[in-house]
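dumping this here so i dont lose it
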């Protein structure tokens, strides 16, 4: 079974989950971590609790906000396993594509394609409009 984790600083993960579920509906097996909301609370216990719910036959795809950030680093330390995939710097199109991805397609393939497509969603629209109107 494929499971998902959105782990971010502050409430970003809850907002991402809310937007995701508004668009695609309820998502099963989706965990969130809202790091550092209550001061210096360590997230190691939260990560460990989630990893304990991921069996050997399961896959976990974790989305984090900042490459090299404390959350990504903590997740890497806790989850160096072949069935855990970590994606940093996610956006909503990436979340949607990965979560709706075919369960029969390897997770790495889904993630790689979703990253390519998600990058195409980042557009400086003002510049695009201004260059087309000239």
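and the seq i came up w/
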């Amino acid at each position: 079974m494929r499971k998902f984790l959105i782990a971010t600083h502050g409430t970003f993960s809850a907002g991402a989950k809310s937007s995701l579920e508004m668009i695609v509906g309820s998502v099963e097996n989706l965990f969130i971590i809202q790091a550092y909301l209550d001061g210096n609370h360590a997230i190691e216990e939260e990560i460990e609790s989630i990893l304990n719910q991921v069996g050997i036959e399961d896959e976990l795809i974790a989305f984090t906000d900042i490459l090299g950030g404390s959350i990504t680093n903590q997740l890497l330390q806790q989850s160096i396993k072949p069935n855990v995939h970590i994606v940093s710097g996610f956006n909503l199109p990436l979340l949607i594509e990965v979560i709706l991805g075919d369960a029969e397609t390897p997770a790495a393939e889904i993630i790689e394609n979703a990253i390519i497509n998600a990058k195409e969603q980042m557009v400086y629209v003002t510049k695009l409009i201004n260059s087309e109107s000239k």
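The mean pLDDT is 93.
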